[in-house]
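hey so u asked for the seq, here:
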Amino acid sequence: MSGLSYATSAISGCIQTARGFAKGPILRSLGDFQGQPLSAECMNAVSGVSVVCANYELICHDFQEHLCDFAGLPRVSPSIPGCVQLIDRWLIANVAFISKVQSAQQAANTRIPITSRERTVHRPPRYGRAAIMSVGNDATSLALFDVKGCGVPPGEVPEVPKSNGLLTLEEAIFEFTMEGLVYSALRHAGNDVLPVPAYAIIDLGFDALWHAPPLNRRASLLVRRAQTRPEYQWGEADPGPSSARLLLQVEMCLRRYGISASICGAVRFRLSGSGGCCTLSRDGRKLTFNDVELDRIRKETGYTGKNDLIVDGVNVQLALGALGAGPVRIMDFGRYHFCSSFNSVAYSWWKRDYEKLVGEFLRPNDPGYIQPDPSLTMGSTRDHPLYAALQQTRVDYEYSKCDRQAVSSMIHRFVVASTTHLAG
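ran it, structure tokens below
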């Protein structure tokens, strides 16, 4: 086998996760983010970190030349001795960084053991607690990582529980496993829109402070394949009808498998009526519409005025290839839910100001409104014994009652058990 071998046999001793992955696109240059103004920022390395789990096959696929360089071997080397341990060291050396604002305080986290080693990272607009980190000396052939949980940017202050700049291990494991389940579902459906794959979860060795017991939760990094985003997510453009329809199609495809990105309440509206009047609110805040607009919304949502009606905005997040070219991907799985049935109106907006409720609507009685297929659904996944076992294993790991191999192995078992019915 030419190139760095990423077959299972070549990485013996590795705890594998049962997950395929989209082959591309793979960004190689910061220039691929053309149009997005990247904010450069200096971060400090964190000491005492460790890899909890990783998709080693994916890492070898995406970074063959970089790993060979790191190992001091020719770029066409068929294998690397100690491949798993080498990848772990390579990841830690290149992504285990935290923002200076985050490490300068202890209101949102316990003390962060930073070192004097620094690296310049880049944040796309509206990127919150994530950043793009790069590896390599060739500006046109970098190893790029999208790292989530690396702290708030300059000018912001970490706040508990929201906007604390961190990602808990519980959140990271959920995203990592959900990405695998979503990939299996969309691949089974023959859908060309696949998830942006995650490379690894890294234990940062300190705790994020929380607003409810347990007050301390392990802080971690979720390391993903770097991707660009459509302009409406970072600029002033509107999504438009075509993007809105695509997002709605992906949401409905996932619902066939009992998965939804949109019933989490992140973008939820309520239509209420009494005495012949209709009001529309979001998170208890009344929204203002004129009579013509309200009449349009009533018709498009099928609101009769008899009972409150819930409208859930489609929360699928798109990612694009270099300069917006190449296959479309989806990312950010932290708000995804398992569900055995759906009954709210689905709404995918055309306008960037989604509170105008202008866009595509699907009502529960519409032909294209999808309910889970009993033979395919993962809607009851949270009730599976392995789901509870995975949560307990994560807790045991945080209290040093088990090692990373136990966590990685349990993730593997959980993903296999949840997707076996889709194999073949």
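The CA atoms of residues 77 and 85 lie 17 Å apart. The first helix runs from residue 56 to 62.
lmk if thats what u needed
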